[in-house]
Amino acid sequence: MSSRGPAYRIVTPRLVLRCWDPRDAPLLKDAIDSSLDHLRPWMPWARHEPQTVAQKVELLREFRGQFDLGADSVYGIFDAGEERVLGGTGLHPRIGPGGLEIGYWIRADAAGRGFATESTAALTRVAFEVAGVERVEIRCAPENLASAAIPRKLGYSEEATPDDLLFTLTAARLAGTPAADARLAAYNVMGSVLIDDLA
Ligand SMILES: CC(C)(COP(=O)(O)OP(=O)(O)OC[C@H]1O[C@@H](n2cnc3c(N)ncnc32)[C@H](O)[C@@H]1OP(=O)(O)O)[C@@H](O)C(=O)NCCC(=O)NCCS
Fold it and tell me: Which of 2, 98, 100, 172 has the smallest number of CB atoms closer than 10 Å to its CB?
Protein backbone atom coordinates (compact mmCIF):
# COMPACT_ATOMS: atom_id res chain seq x y z
CA MET A 1 0.00 0.00 0.00
CA SER A 2 1.17 3.54 -0.65
CA SER A 3 2.07 5.69 2.34
CA ARG A 4 -1.22 7.60 1.98
CA GLY A 5 -3.46 4.57 1.68
CA PRO A 6 -5.06 2.21 2.19
CA ALA A 7 -8.49 3.39 1.03
CA TYR A 8 -10.87 2.79 3.94
CA ARG A 9 -13.81 4.44 2.23
CA ILE A 10 -14.70 4.67 -1.45
CA VAL A 11 -17.70 6.64 -2.71
CA THR A 12 -19.09 6.03 -6.21
CA PRO A 13 -22.09 7.73 -7.85
CA ARG A 14 -24.53 5.30 -6.18
CA LEU A 15 -22.54 3.32 -3.58
CA VAL A 16 -20.33 3.48 -0.54
CA LEU A 17 -17.63 0.80 -0.24
CA ARG A 18 -15.98 0.80 3.14
CA CYS A 19 -14.01 -1.24 5.59
CA TRP A 20 -16.43 -3.35 7.64
CA ASP A 21 -17.24 -2.41 11.22
CA PRO A 22 -18.45 -5.16 13.60
CA ARG A 23 -21.55 -3.03 14.17
CA ASP A 24 -22.56 -3.78 10.56
CA ALA A 25 -23.32 -7.39 11.60
CA PRO A 26 -27.16 -7.14 11.52
CA LEU A 27 -27.10 -5.40 8.13
CA LEU A 28 -24.74 -8.03 6.71
CA LYS A 29 -26.87 -10.85 8.11
CA ASP A 30 -29.98 -9.38 6.50
CA ALA A 31 -28.24 -9.13 3.10
CA ILE A 32 -27.03 -12.73 3.22
CA ASP A 33 -30.11 -14.35 4.78
CA SER A 34 -32.32 -12.83 2.09
CA SER A 35 -29.98 -14.08 -0.68
CA LEU A 36 -29.14 -17.69 0.21
CA ASP A 37 -30.42 -19.33 -2.98
CA HIS A 38 -28.70 -16.64 -5.06
CA LEU A 39 -25.32 -16.98 -3.30
CA ARG A 40 -25.03 -20.71 -2.60
CA PRO A 41 -24.17 -21.88 -6.15
CA TRP A 42 -21.18 -19.53 -6.34
CA MET A 43 -19.92 -18.56 -2.89
CA PRO A 44 -18.55 -21.55 -0.93
CA TRP A 45 -19.02 -19.72 2.40
CA ALA A 46 -22.76 -19.39 1.75
CA ARG A 47 -23.17 -23.13 2.39
CA HIS A 48 -22.48 -22.36 6.06
CA GLU A 49 -25.17 -19.69 6.24
CA PRO A 50 -27.32 -18.53 7.90
CA GLN A 51 -25.14 -17.52 10.83
CA THR A 52 -26.13 -15.71 14.00
CA VAL A 53 -25.51 -12.01 14.53
CA ALA A 54 -22.85 -12.98 17.10
CA GLN A 55 -21.02 -15.07 14.47
CA LYS A 56 -21.21 -12.17 12.04
CA VAL A 57 -19.74 -9.85 14.70
CA GLU A 58 -16.78 -12.21 15.05
CA LEU A 59 -16.34 -12.42 11.27
CA LEU A 60 -16.40 -8.63 10.92
CA ARG A 61 -13.91 -8.25 13.79
CA GLU A 62 -11.58 -10.48 11.76
CA PHE A 63 -12.16 -8.53 8.55
CA ARG A 64 -11.62 -5.25 10.39
CA GLY A 65 -8.46 -6.54 12.05
CA GLN A 66 -7.00 -7.81 8.79
CA PHE A 67 -7.86 -4.52 7.10
CA ASP A 68 -6.14 -2.46 9.80
CA LEU A 69 -3.05 -4.69 9.64
CA GLY A 70 -2.86 -4.42 5.84
CA ALA A 71 -3.27 -8.20 5.54
CA ASP A 72 -6.48 -8.22 3.47
CA SER A 73 -9.02 -5.59 2.39
CA VAL A 74 -12.61 -6.80 2.62
CA TYR A 75 -15.18 -4.08 1.96
CA GLY A 76 -18.91 -3.85 2.54
CA ILE A 77 -20.95 -2.39 -0.32
CA PHE A 78 -23.63 -0.05 1.03
CA ASP A 79 -26.29 2.18 -0.47
CA ALA A 80 -25.44 5.89 -0.48
CA GLY A 81 -27.09 6.43 2.92
CA GLU A 82 -25.32 3.37 4.41
CA GLU A 83 -28.68 2.04 5.55
CA ARG A 84 -28.47 -1.26 3.66
CA VAL A 85 -25.72 -3.70 2.85
CA LEU A 86 -25.95 -4.31 -0.89
CA GLY A 87 -23.07 -6.78 -1.02
CA GLY A 88 -19.43 -7.42 -0.33
CA THR A 89 -16.20 -7.08 -2.23
CA GLY A 90 -12.49 -6.98 -1.58
CA LEU A 91 -8.95 -6.43 -2.75
CA HIS A 92 -7.19 -9.65 -1.83
CA PRO A 93 -3.39 -10.09 -1.91
CA ARG A 94 -3.66 -13.88 -2.30
CA ILE A 95 -2.29 -13.85 -5.88
CA GLY A 96 1.24 -12.89 -4.89
CA PRO A 97 3.37 -9.75 -4.98
CA GLY A 98 2.37 -6.91 -7.28
CA GLY A 99 -1.18 -8.14 -7.73
CA LEU A 100 -4.60 -7.99 -6.09
CA GLU A 101 -7.65 -10.13 -6.75
CA ILE A 102 -11.13 -8.63 -6.66
CA GLY A 103 -14.06 -10.75 -5.48
CA TYR A 104 -17.71 -9.66 -5.20
CA TRP A 105 -21.28 -10.57 -4.38
CA ILE A 106 -24.46 -8.50 -4.52
CA ARG A 107 -27.63 -9.26 -2.53
CA ALA A 108 -30.40 -10.91 -4.56
CA ASP A 109 -32.87 -8.01 -4.52
CA ALA A 110 -30.19 -5.54 -5.70
CA ALA A 111 -28.73 -7.67 -8.52
CA GLY A 112 -28.98 -6.63 -12.16
CA ARG A 113 -28.67 -2.90 -11.55
CA GLY A 114 -24.99 -2.53 -12.36
CA PHE A 115 -23.81 -2.34 -8.74
CA ALA A 116 -21.11 -5.02 -9.08
CA THR A 117 -19.82 -3.30 -12.22
CA GLU A 118 -19.78 0.11 -10.50
CA SER A 119 -18.00 -1.16 -7.39
CA THR A 120 -15.50 -3.28 -9.34
CA ALA A 121 -14.59 -0.39 -11.63
CA ALA A 122 -13.89 1.77 -8.57
CA LEU A 123 -11.86 -0.94 -6.81
CA THR A 124 -9.85 -1.50 -9.97
CA ARG A 125 -8.77 2.13 -9.97
CA VAL A 126 -8.04 2.02 -6.23
CA ALA A 127 -5.87 -1.08 -6.72
CA PHE A 128 -3.73 0.68 -9.32
CA GLU A 129 -3.80 4.26 -8.09
CA VAL A 130 -3.79 3.84 -4.29
CA ALA A 131 -2.40 0.35 -3.62
CA GLY A 132 0.00 0.77 -6.54
CA VAL A 133 -0.16 -2.80 -7.86
CA GLU A 134 0.82 -3.85 -11.38
CA ARG A 135 -2.00 -6.31 -11.97
CA VAL A 136 -5.59 -6.94 -10.91
CA GLU A 137 -7.27 -10.31 -11.36
CA ILE A 138 -10.84 -11.58 -11.18
CA ARG A 139 -11.67 -15.29 -11.27
CA CYS A 140 -15.00 -16.95 -11.79
CA ALA A 141 -16.58 -20.19 -12.91
CA PRO A 142 -17.23 -20.25 -16.69
CA GLU A 143 -20.93 -20.96 -16.00
CA ASN A 144 -21.26 -17.81 -13.88
CA LEU A 145 -22.26 -15.56 -16.75
CA ALA A 146 -23.37 -12.62 -14.59
CA SER A 147 -19.99 -12.60 -12.84
CA ALA A 148 -17.94 -12.97 -16.03
CA ALA A 149 -19.89 -10.09 -17.58
CA ILE A 150 -18.35 -7.64 -15.11
CA PRO A 151 -14.63 -7.84 -16.05
CA ARG A 152 -15.67 -8.22 -19.68
CA LYS A 153 -17.52 -4.90 -19.49
CA LEU A 154 -14.59 -3.22 -17.72
CA GLY A 155 -11.94 -4.09 -20.30
CA TYR A 156 -10.10 -6.93 -18.56
CA SER A 157 -8.37 -9.56 -20.74
CA GLU A 158 -9.71 -13.07 -20.44
CA GLU A 159 -8.18 -16.53 -20.46
CA ALA A 160 -9.51 -19.96 -19.59
CA THR A 161 -7.56 -21.97 -17.03
CA PRO A 162 -8.22 -25.62 -16.16
CA ASP A 163 -10.21 -24.49 -13.11
CA ASP A 164 -11.95 -21.26 -14.02
CA LEU A 165 -11.96 -18.09 -16.10
CA LEU A 166 -9.16 -15.70 -15.26
CA PHE A 167 -9.56 -12.00 -16.06
CA THR A 168 -6.53 -9.74 -15.81
CA LEU A 169 -5.92 -6.02 -16.16
CA THR A 170 -2.43 -4.54 -15.89
CA ALA A 171 -1.50 -1.00 -14.92
CA ALA A 172 -0.05 -0.49 -18.39
CA ARG A 173 -3.37 -1.42 -20.04
CA LEU A 174 -5.75 0.50 -17.74
CA ALA A 175 -5.87 3.68 -19.83
CA GLY A 176 -8.70 3.62 -22.31
CA THR A 177 -10.66 0.85 -20.57
CA PRO A 178 -14.14 1.44 -19.11
CA ALA A 179 -12.59 0.77 -15.67
CA ALA A 180 -10.37 3.84 -16.11
CA ASP A 181 -13.52 5.97 -16.51
CA ALA A 182 -14.89 5.04 -13.07
CA ARG A 183 -15.80 8.12 -11.07
CA LEU A 184 -15.08 7.90 -7.37
CA ALA A 185 -13.78 9.48 -4.23
CA ALA A 186 -11.47 7.52 -1.94
CA TYR A 187 -10.40 8.39 1.60
CA ASN A 188 -7.79 7.00 3.95
CA VAL A 189 -8.32 6.07 7.59
CA MET A 190 -8.05 9.74 8.65
CA GLY A 191 -10.60 10.82 6.05
CA SER A 192 -7.93 12.45 3.88
CA VAL A 193 -8.71 12.44 0.17
CA LEU A 194 -6.77 9.91 -1.93
CA ILE A 195 -8.77 10.31 -5.14
CA ASP A 196 -11.67 12.68 -5.77
CA ASP A 197 -13.32 13.07 -9.10
CA LEU A 198 -16.90 13.31 -7.82
CA ALA A 199 -16.55 16.94 -6.74
C1 LIG B 1 -22.43 -11.90 -10.05
C2 LIG B 1 -23.05 -10.72 -9.30
C3 LIG B 1 -22.01 -10.18 -8.31
C4 LIG B 1 -23.41 -9.63 -10.31
O5 LIG B 1 -23.85 -8.49 -9.61
P6 LIG B 1 -24.77 -7.39 -10.30
O7 LIG B 1 -24.74 -6.17 -9.50
O8 LIG B 1 -26.07 -7.99 -10.63
O9 LIG B 1 -23.94 -7.18 -11.66
P10 LIG B 1 -24.16 -6.02 -12.74
O11 LIG B 1 -25.59 -5.63 -12.75
O12 LIG B 1 -23.13 -4.98 -12.51
O13 LIG B 1 -23.75 -6.76 -14.09
C14 LIG B 1 -24.22 -8.05 -14.37
C15 LIG B 1 -24.15 -8.28 -15.85
O16 LIG B 1 -24.37 -9.66 -16.09
C17 LIG B 1 -25.34 -9.80 -17.07
N18 LIG B 1 -26.01 -11.06 -16.80
C19 LIG B 1 -26.75 -11.38 -15.73
N20 LIG B 1 -27.18 -12.64 -15.85
C21 LIG B 1 -26.69 -13.10 -17.00
C22 LIG B 1 -26.81 -14.33 -17.70
N23 LIG B 1 -27.49 -15.34 -17.18
N24 LIG B 1 -26.17 -14.45 -18.88
C25 LIG B 1 -25.43 -13.44 -19.41
N26 LIG B 1 -25.29 -12.25 -18.78
C27 LIG B 1 -25.92 -12.09 -17.60
C28 LIG B 1 -26.24 -8.61 -16.89
O29 LIG B 1 -27.01 -8.40 -18.06
C30 LIG B 1 -25.22 -7.53 -16.62
O31 LIG B 1 -24.62 -7.06 -17.81
P32 LIG B 1 -25.20 -5.75 -18.58
O33 LIG B 1 -25.07 -4.60 -17.62
O34 LIG B 1 -24.28 -5.61 -19.74
O35 LIG B 1 -26.59 -6.06 -18.90
C36 LIG B 1 -24.34 -11.11 -8.55
O37 LIG B 1 -25.25 -11.68 -9.43
C38 LIG B 1 -24.06 -12.10 -7.41
O39 LIG B 1 -23.79 -11.70 -6.30
N40 LIG B 1 -24.15 -13.41 -7.71
C41 LIG B 1 -23.93 -14.42 -6.68
C42 LIG B 1 -22.51 -14.41 -6.15
C43 LIG B 1 -21.47 -14.48 -7.24
O44 LIG B 1 -21.65 -15.17 -8.23
N45 LIG B 1 -20.33 -13.78 -7.05
C46 LIG B 1 -19.24 -13.82 -8.00
C47 LIG B 1 -18.39 -15.01 -7.77
S48 LIG B 1 -17.06 -15.09 -8.96
Answer: 172
What residue's CA is closest to ligand 1, atom 20?
146
| Contact 128 CB / ligand 1 (< 6 Å) | no
**In whole angstroms, what is the distance from residue 159 CA to residue 180 CA?**
21
Q: What is the pLDDT of residue 2?
A: 46
Interval between CA 43 and ligand 1 midpoint (Å) = 14
**pLDDT at residue number 199:** 84
CB 199 within 8 A of CB 16: no
- Taking the CA of residue 118 as reference, the ligand 1 atom at the shortest distance is 12
Average pLDDT, 10 consecutive residues per value, the chain (199 residues): 81 98 98 98 97 98 98 98 98 96 98 98 98 98 97 97 96 98 97 94
Q: What is the DSSP letter of 161?
A: -
* pTM of model > 0.90: yes
Residue 105 CA to ligand 1 center (angstroms) comes to 9
- HSE at residue 160, side-chain half, CA atoms within 13 A, is 3
Please name each of the domains of the chain with its CATH number.
Answer: 9-181 (3.40.630.30)
